[in-house]
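Supplementary Note 2. Why include the ligand at all?

Several targets in our set were suspected to adopt different conformations when bound, so apo predictions alone were not considered sufficient. For every target with a known small-molecule partner we therefore ran a joint prediction. The input for 4-(aminomethyl)benzoic acid is given below.
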Amino acid sequence: IIGGDETQSWQYQYTVSLQGMDSSLCGGSLIAPDMVLTAAHCQGISNTAVIGRHNLNSNDGESIPIKRETLHAEFNATIMDSDLMLVLLERPIALDVPLVKVNSDKNRPRVGESVTVMGWGDTALDDSIFNDSDALMSVDINVISNRDCDNSRGIVYSEEYSYNGQVTENMMCATDEGQDSCQGDSGGPLVIQGISGDGTDDILVGVVSWGLGCGLSDFPGVYTRVSQFYDWIKDEVCNQSSNPP
Ligand code: 4AZ
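The joint prediction is reproduced in token form.
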């Protein structure tokens, strides 16, 4: 997370760290007691889901082996379309961690709406440094229209880049000056915060997917638009979870 702040340990407990070899490789969201929603491009790199751990150096929360990964059938790794995957855990979480509600409303989030993204990924604006965070970080950013996002263009290291044609209806974009998700945050939640402030009424609207660099003002972060996949998520959770919400 670029330009963000350390979260409070009770704020976003549905945020999952997907780990392999003892390091956090992707984020995810707990949507059923034994199911995590993440990005398809996180497939095959993790073997464990860690839930309820604010600081990765601690032993807080629960570590549960991954039983099965289900990619969205239309995932296209070249253009990152339908970048979504469900992860079934070996057992439901025993801890009392609030699940996050999956957005089904195609009219949300609205353009201009404030959304929050969290993760343990890169915090360094400088491309050459990779600086993961031990503590869960978050940042508030604003939703922009897909048309504006698709029109994104600019010069990076004296080369011209453009998103032109790459932003599909299955994606959404959100940005703010110097504030962004980044490498290592992939698969993690983008939410509309509820009024309680403790995460119990947050709504999951996006999944961290891709972007050109991180925190570059010309290039917004791009997220999988969760509402497009609500029916698929609901069907898979009902079929696979031993304890669907
Ligand atoms: C990545 O490499 C990545 N700025 C994730 C998010 C963003 C860019 C890259 C968005 O996983």
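The two ends are 29 Å apart (CA to CA). DSSP finds two helices and 16 strands in the chain. Comparable summaries for the other entries are listed in the accompanying table.
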